[in-house]
């Protein structure tokens, strides 16, 4: 899901790095709370985290994708 978001080709370098950081986090932790997208390590690219890197529409899309990944992780665990 997140990989396909990157492959759209419309992301800036900092946005791609942010998504790659999410993927790395998910690889290690299986899930991520949306609140984490506004805290370290996601504030290293921009102090405001997700909203500093993406506009409102892009941020909503990222949150939707993260929520979908989290739901899939819960299904696998449950």
Describe this protein's structure.
There is one protein chain. With 78 residues, the chain is an all-alpha fold. The chain has one domain (2-77). 62% of the residues lie in helices and 0% in strands. It contains four helices and no strands. It has helices at residues 2-6, 13-29, 50-53, 56-77. The longest helix has 22 residues, at 56-77. The radius of gyration is 12 Å and the shape is globular. The chain starts with a helix and ends with a helix. The model has no long low-confidence stretch (mean pLDDT 88).
The quaternary organization reads as single chain
> Secondary-structure element sequence?
HHHH
Query: Which regions have little confidence, pLDDT < 50, spanning 5+ residues?
Result: none
**What is the 3D shape?**
globular
